[in-house]
Amino acid sequence: MHPTRFALSLLLAGLFGSVAAPSWAQQLPPPPSPPAGAPSPSPHPWASLSPTEKDMLGPMQKDWNGLPPDRQAHMLERVKQWSTLPPERRQEIRKRIEQWQQMTPEQRDQARENMRKFQQLSPEQRAQVHKAYQRYQQLPQEQRQQLMRQFRQQNNIPPRRPPPHGR
Predict the structure, then answer these.
(1) What is 89-146 written as a DSSP string?
(2) pLDDT (tens digit, 9 = 90+) per residue, 7-52?
């Protein structure tokens, strides 16, 4: 497949196959493993978080106490970094966390796979995907919906259903 066509297919599959993986999750390496013999981090119950941490991690509230302590510690480290960003960027991250939380495990797996494929592209191919995405974002809503319908039909992807209530 031609590299540009592959990049565009990857972009459209990521956009239309499911909610695109949040950029904060895409750039996030897995939490580092503690050195052998080092104590694992202690849990951070939701009630113990600061108002800033609760604000940024709000979409994760119902799942927070069930996360492994090392994942909680990693997310809290990210919140420290996010707190230095402008308010509009923090809000964008919070929305992406919310989108990620609403995804099914299968959608998350697909988003991770799409990101893995994206990371394997050359810098030029990544730039092409980025430009295609920017052009797509500039289209009127009706055109984006039409492109989405065409892509789904061409690739035998069923129409997207809203997440079940309570998710």
Answers:
(1) HHHHHHHHHHHHHHS-HHHHHHHHHHHHHHHTS-HHHHHHHHHHHHHHHHS-HHHHHH
(2) 445 555 554 443 344 443 444 445 455 556 666 678 899 999 999 8
